[in-house]
Write a structure and sequence with these properties.
The protein has 244 residues and is α/β, with parallel strands linked by helices. The chain has one domain: Glycerol-3-phosphate (1)-acyltransferase (3-Layer(aba) Sandwich). Helix content is 45%, strand content 14%. It has 10 helices and 7 strands. The protein has a 5-stranded mixed sheet with strand order 1-7-6-2-5, sandwiched between helices. A two-stranded parallel ribbon has the order 3-4. Helix 1 crosses helix 2. This is Phospholipid/glycerol acyltransferase domain-containing protein. Its main location: membrane. It is found in: Membrane. GO terms for molecular function: O-acyltransferase activity.
């Protein structure tokens, strides 16, 4: 009997994942105008960490499908784990169930949660994952500083790290809004894997983690397409100055 229930649960999970990922892809690619660059930089492997800048609470629903759709239909394990604010995605039983199926990891805002970091360290070697190195959404659209937690995760697990730059998402879901908008222009840029080998011989301490997260943010800032060069160049210089 337990085997039957497990099979039913797995089937429901599969249908739910594929349906919602497809809906997300249609929303961003068809109902909005999303351009994707650098998808060839993403290896279809486990121990893969995608690190985008953070603009809205639905950024994960953009990054995952743009990275792995339609391959995720035949290989659901490609669906990335991602942190999600507990107060937004786990505040009632139904939403908590849906979020768990989306492979969301509940995170309490403003809290340094070692349990969450340990959970990510356990999951990442055998999966793909999205994490937001700034730790919170940008109110202005400008890049913030990287948090030490993502540096610690990279130091411990040593994953393949792909920097990701998002443009235009603030127009899709402005802060304070709960209904996503359509017919907006969105850009997603996947960078080449970042080499952190220079940091792995350094002590396992906060200063090292911050250096790693600093390199992450510089790599994100350097991602640009024609028309975005001026803004991203300013971001790179500002971030380099903040980590000196």
């Amino acid at each position: 009997m337990k085997t039957i229930f497990k099979l039913i649960n797995n089937f429901i999970s599969f249908i739910w994942i594929i349906s919602t990922v497809t809906i997300a892809w249609i929303f961003f690619k068809v109902l909005n105008r999303t351009k994707v660059y650098g998808k060839k930089n993403i290896p279809l492997k486990t121990n893969l960490l995608l690190l985008p800048n953070h603009l809205t609470m639905i950024d994960s629903f953009l990054v995952g499908p743009m990275a792995f759709y339609p391959k995720v239909i035949l290989k659901p394990s490609l669906l990335p784990w991602s942190p999600a604010a507990e107060e937004n995605f786990f505040n009632n039983p139904i939403l908590a169930w849906m979020s768990a199926k989306w492979k969301a990891i509940p995170v309490k805002r403003g809290r340094k949660d070692l349990e969450v970091l340990n959970r990510m360290s356990e999951l990442l070697p055998h999966s793909t994952m999205i994490n937001f190195p700034e730790g919170t959404r940008s109110r202005t659209g400008k890049l913030g500083k990287g948090r030490p937690g993502v540096g610690k995760l990279i130091y411990d697990v040593r994953p393949i790290v792909i920097p990701v730059r998002l443009f235009g998402m603030k127009k899709v879901l402005p802060i304070g809004s709960y209904i996503p908008r359509i017919f907006k222009k969105i850009t997603v840029i996947f960078g080449k894997p970042i080499d952190f080998s220079e940091f792995y011989t350094l002590p396992d301490e906060k200063e090292t983690w911050l250096k790693i997260s600093g390199k992450v943010m510089e790599s994100i800032a350097e991602l640009k397409v024609e028309g975005e060069r001026k803004n991203t160049s300013l971001d790179v210089e500002r971030l380099r100055g903040s980590y000196r």
